[in-house]
Amino acid sequence: MEEFAEASVHAGVIPPLVELLRGRLTWVEQRVAIRALGHLATYASTFPAVASHGEILELSIQLATSSLEIVYSHFYQYVDRRPSYHCDLLTRGMGGVDMESRKAEEWASQLQCWSLQLINCFAFKPEFLSTICKPEFLIKLPGMWGGLVNENSPAGIGLLRTICHHKIGRGPVASCPGIIEALCNIARSSDDWQYMAIDCLLWLVQDPSTCHKVIDKAVPALVDLAEILALGDYKKLGDSIVNVLQECIQSQGAGTQLSQ
């Protein structure tokens, strides 16, 4: 697949995709553009070509934040004003208003998830984290989930995990109490992405520069999870949590002694 991505870039597909991403046509074409750019950003050989268009990241963040509202206001809200070609695309020419509405909800969720996946490709590169880690965007990530149609997408929590993997990303996350509370709730849940929230909390607690900001909320949540034997592919997860908590307590104790 990578060779096809390279061929597409060489053929000059990125500029017209950026035009669609800007909203030159409609949200339906934005959905196609975000999906295509997400594929191109996945490969090491074609990511630089995507990244060279600086507005792609900004536009993706805007879409991730506003995609549901865009689809509602431009299609879902007024049944009698729905563009006929949108209706045909959504239902493949079959089904009525209910089918159109249901598919529009699915496509809106896909638009958001695919935007997050594209942002996630940028988040692996520390140089883009300053653009991504804006408080007004970060605070919304825990509430962005894939839904049934995107059950394999970690959506907002997946992006948070990538951000928290970087030291430069942990600072902004730790500075948003609402995010820490959301991570604690997800970590305690039976959500499929529970382990991602646990990872975020562990990294935040292990980092001396963020530990003091999150310890009051994160530690009680992690203590509740310390008896977990395994979680999916994570073996001896409880032991790992206990070890991190012990290190945290020791470092906090050492810090207290030094301050005295």
From TrEMBL:
Pfam families: ARM_7 (PF26524). Residues 2-134 form the ARM repeat N-terminal plant domain. It comes from the Eukaryota. InterPro entries: ARM-like, ARM-type_fold, ARM_7. SUPFAM superfamilies: ARM repeat. PANTHER family: ARM-REPEAT/TETRATRICOPEPTIDE REPEAT (TPR)-LIKE PROTEIN, ARM-REPEAT_TETRATRICOPEPTIDE REPEAT (TPR)-LIKE PROTEIN. This is ARM repeat N-terminal plant domain-containing protein. The lineage of its organism: Eukaryota, Viridiplantae, Streptophyta, Embryophyta, Tracheophyta.
